[in-house]
Structures are given as C-alpha cells and as structure tokens.
Amino acid sequence: MIKLFSLKQQKKDEESAGGTRAGVGGKKASAAQLRIQKDINELNLPKTCEIVFPDQDDLLNFKLIISPDEGFYKGGKFVFSFKVGQGYPHDPPKEPNPEDPLNKEAAEVLQTNRRLFEQNVQRSLRGGYVGATYFERCLK
C-alpha cells in the first residue's frame, strides 16, 4: 500500500512551516488533486488489488493492478492505467457468462467442455495460442 500524508496532516505541516497550501513547485493544488488524495487516503482495497503511482508527485496518473486469487483468472495479472480527466479503460475481466457472451466460440466451449475452457484460460494467461489467437503472458 502506498504511504500518503492525509490532507489534514499536510495542511498542519504547511501551516507550521509558515507556508500556504500548495503542491509541487509552490503551485496551489487543484480540486482534482485534493479530491484524489482524499479518496486514496480513504481507500480500502482488497488484497488482490494494488495501486501504483509511477510519479509519487502526480496522483492523477496511476495504475490499478488486479491479481485474482480465485476463479478462471486465478494467477493472472491485469494492469489498468488511469489518467484522471482522460476517461477510463474498459471494465476488468469478469467471470464468463455463456448466456450473453462477448466471445461466442469461448462460450460454446464453456457450455460443452468446461475442462477444455479452463485449460484454454490457463494457456492464454501463460502466453501462447488458443486456436489461431495469440495471447501475451499475463501471469506473475
């Protein structure tokens, strides 16, 4: 988990130093920066999720890493990059729904041969081909 000062502590420190509430380089923190810092401080992520800030001074750009510990995607690692104010990536993978499939071929395999479906998921997570489709490795 990333260690961040709370807004209250930051304000207290700045007041004791005789400064004003400002961000890096003496600039005033934007409303978005203040809000994201507050939200991060209150965040309670499950053990399968992690937030990474490539630049500790830029809280508006971060990565969410999801490492499922159960289900078909167990052992996988899914990384989503966020730039606040720039829109959001696609939703993270969900358990397959053969009643409303995005991938009709995979749904058919799931309905007819669940074991083969599980093997295909593992093969795709390890990197390689499932049928004619190549998948990059995403296991840790």
UniProtKB/TrEMBL annotation:
Highest taxon of source: Eukaryota
Disordered: annotated segments: 1-31
Q: Which reaction does it catalyse?
A: [E1 NEDD8-activating enzyme]-S-[NEDD8 protein]-yl-L-cysteine + [E2 NEDD8-conjugating enzyme]-L-cysteine = [E1 NEDD8-activating enzyme]-L-cysteine + [E2 NEDD8-conjugating enzyme]-S-[NEDD8-protein]-yl-L-cysteine
User: What keywords does the record list, in alphabetical order?
Assistant: ATP-binding, Nucleotide-binding, Transferase, Ubl conjugation pathway
Report the enzyme's class at the first EC level.
transferase
Quote the InterPro entries the UniProt record gives: UBC, UBQ-conjugating_enzyme/RWD
The question of whether Nucleotide-binding is a record keyword is answered with yes
GO terms (molecular function) for this protein are: ATP binding; NEDD8 conjugating enzyme activity
Q: In which pathway does it act?
A: Protein modification; protein neddylation
Q: What is its EC number?
A: 2.3.2.34
UBC core domain mapped to chain residues: 31-140
Its biological function?
Accepts the ubiquitin-like protein NEDD8 from the UBA3-NAE1 E1 complex and catalyzes its covalent attachment to other proteins. The specific interaction with the E3 ubiquitin ligase RBX1, but not RBX2, suggests that the RBX1-UBE2M complex neddylates specific target proteins, such as CUL1, CUL2, CUL3 and CUL4. Involved in cell proliferation.
Protein name, as recorded: NEDD8-conjugating enzyme UBC12
Write down the species. Labeo rohita
